[in-house]
Amino acid sequence: MRILAAILLLAFAASPALAQTDDDVFAALEGVYGIEAAGNFDAYFTTITTAFAEGDSQTLADMGSYPFEVAANGELYDIFTPQDFTGNFDALLLPETIDAIANQDYADLIVTDEGVGFANGALWLANVCSDDSCSTSAWLITRINN
Hints:
The chain has about 150 residues and is of the alpha+beta class. It is built from 7 helices and 6 strands.
C-alpha cells in the first residue's frame, strides 16, 4: 500500500502544472470584483502595458491612487502626487521592471482581493471606488516593487 501511495505521489508531482488562461483570469476578476469591474479591467490592462512599453510616465501617473509606495534601490518611496511620479520615473523604475510589465501576459496576472499583480507582483492595481457609495470605480496603481 505504501509503495502504491509513493508511486501515485511521484506521478502527481511529475505531472505538469495546469496553466492559467485568459478566461481563468477574467473569471477570477469577475468572482472577486464583479462583472462591471472585471469588464472594465481589459482597457486598464492595455493602457498599463502600453504606457510601460512606450515609457509614458504621464499616463501612468494619471493612473496612480495617491499616495502610493514604490520600492526601489533598497528604499521605500511615498509618491504623493503625479509630479512626484513623473519627475522621478527613471530613478524609481528599473529597466527590468518596466520591461516585465510592458510584456505582461494577461494569463499570468495575479488576482487577489487586494488587487491585481503584474510581473509577479512588481506592480499592483486595485479597483478603487470614487466615493463612499462606490457607484463608480477605476483600476489604479497602488504599489510598485522593483
